[in-house]
Amino acid sequence: MDPISALAEKLMRLPGIGPRQARRIAYALLALGPAVSRELALAITRLGDETAQCERCYRFFPASAQAKQALCSECSDTGRDASIVLIVERDTDLDAIRKSGTYEGRFFVLGGNIPILESDPAKKIRIKELLAEVTRAAREDGLHEIIIATSANEEGEYTAQYVTKTLEPTTLPAQIVITSLGRGLSTGAELEYADKETLRNALKNRG
Amino acid sequence: MDPISALAEKLMRLPGIGPRQARRIAYALLALGPAVSRELALAITRLGDETAQCERCYRFFPASAQAKQALCSECSDTGRDASIVLIVERDTDLDAIRKSGTYEGRFFVLGGNIPILESDPAKKIRIKELLAEVTRAAREDGLHEIIIATSANEEGEYTAQYVTKTLEPTTLPAQIVITSLGRGLSTGAELEYADKETLRNALKNRG
Amino acid sequence: MDPISALAEKLMRLPGIGPRQARRIAYALLALGPAVSRELALAITRLGDETAQCERCYRFFPASAQAKQALCSECSDTGRDASIVLIVERDTDLDAIRKSGTYEGRFFVLGGNIPILESDPAKKIRIKELLAEVTRAAREDGLHEIIIATSANEEGEYTAQYVTKTLEPTTLPAQIVITSLGRGLSTGAELEYADKETLRNALKNRG
Amino acid sequence: MDPISALAEKLMRLPGIGPRQARRIAYALLALGPAVSRELALAITRLGDETAQCERCYRFFPASAQAKQALCSECSDTGRDASIVLIVERDTDLDAIRKSGTYEGRFFVLGGNIPILESDPAKKIRIKELLAEVTRAAREDGLHEIIIATSANEEGEYTAQYVTKTLEPTTLPAQIVITSLGRGLSTGAELEYADKETLRNALKNRG
Question: What stretch or stretches form a coiled coil here (chains A, B, C, D) (predicted)?
Answer without folding.
Answer: none
